[in-house]
Every structure is written in structure tokens, then in C-alpha cells.
Write a structure and sequence with these properties.
The chain is α+β, with helices and mostly antiparallel strands. It is built from 2 helices and 5 strands.
């Protein structure tokens, strides 16, 4: 009996290290943002193990989605192009939250 070969598809987004999640939470709290971690997400035909959403506390508006890829940390603002960084610390340093 021969088994069918199943193709294994790599996720677009990988999970973060716990230290990175703690850093993101501290950064979000400092900037008065709400952080949500979404697990096992699928969007536009892509799969993500983990996406971090950063939201304005007052309005609930999502400012950024952040995920880890094989190439680095991807930050997708709600308006604009995705940005690629080498580390989460570098990504957060480049973000400037707007005041509501």
C-alpha cells in the first residue's frame, strides 16, 4: 500500500518568544495602547501562528498588526505598507503612536 504524499505548508507568521511578547505588552502599556495576541489566524489565504494587534484604548481602532516571519518582524499599519525589522525591539522603536 502506498501513502499519498501530503505537502506541508509553512505558516506565513511564526510564534513570538515569550520575552518579545512581554516587551510588546510593556511598550503597549507605556503608550496607552491595548495589545491582543491572536492565535492560529488565517487571512488572505495566509496562515499565521500568532499575530499581535496593537489598538488605541479610547477608540478601539487597530493601529498595527505585528507578526514574526522567517525573514524578521513584519509590522503592518492599518494604513500603509508593511515594514520589515530584524527584531521586535527595533520594530517597536520605529513606531510612533498617535494620540486620540
Amino acid at each position: 500500500m502506498q501513502l499519498r504524499r501530503a505537502s506541508v505548508r509553512m505558516s506565513t507568521g511564526l510564534s513570538f518568544e515569550v520575552a518579545d511578547l512581554l516587551l510588546a505588552k510593556a511598550w503597549a502599556d507605556f503608550h496607552d495602547l491595548r495589545m491582543e495576541v491572536e492565535l492560529d489566524c488565517a487571512a488572505d489565504g495566509e496562515e499565521y501562528e500568532e499575530i499581535v494587534g496593537l489598538f488605541a484604548r479610547q477608540t478601539g481602532f487597530r493601529r498595527w498588526m505585528v507578526w514574526r516571519s522567517c525573514d524578521g518582524i513584519v509590522v503592518q499599519p492599518m494604513v500603509g505598507r508593511p515594514m520589515l525589522f530584524d527584531s521586535l525591539a527595533e520594530a517597536l522603536e520605529g513606531l510612533i503612536p498617535l494620540r486620540d
